[in-house]
Specification:
Blueprint lengths: L3 H13 L19 H7 L17 H12 L7 H6 L5 H7 L5 H9 L3 H31 L2 H26 L8 H9 L1
Helix pairs in contact: 1-2, 3-8, 5-6, 7-8
Amino acid sequence: MASPEILATEEAAVEAAPKKADGEDSKGTDKGAGFTGTYRLLVRGKNINENTLLATDYLNHFNEIIMLLEMVPSMTDCFEDCQEWQPKSYADHFRDSCFSDAELAILAYESAPANYRQAFDATVDQMNRLIADSLPRIKALIDAGEEGPLQLGVEGVTRKLQSFVDVASSIINGNMDTLDQTQIDKVMND
């Protein structure tokens, strides 16, 4: 439930927002369903993109596993921390974070334009799948006890993960609004 302050601000923003016919805002952009236009006003000056209504802070969740994986070749005990890492929804990440505008980030995400949110969610799904598929292979490389293959295996996974983080960042920043199979294949085959 949104706080009374956010609800009051939403109402004020709706009243103050310039309107055009057919659900367009002053820039001629379709505001979509819900409070997309309102949230665009509310996120101004926050670490949430005004256009996409998404926040890069969520990517810290994936940067954490990348960092942990990068330590595995030199400190295999770190693999236990990798195994403890779990996928986390956008909302759960912000609920568990110290992000100053966590509640606003969650509400804005729920009103994010579908083209950005769908591409973003698809990218997150790909990252979660890559991590889940890679951990057993990395464990097998650790058990084999050969440093070279372990280093190469971890580097391959972290490089792909970082590529997906870069794609997600582009979506968040409004530089990309689709993620098609060709893009996924390119990242996975690099």
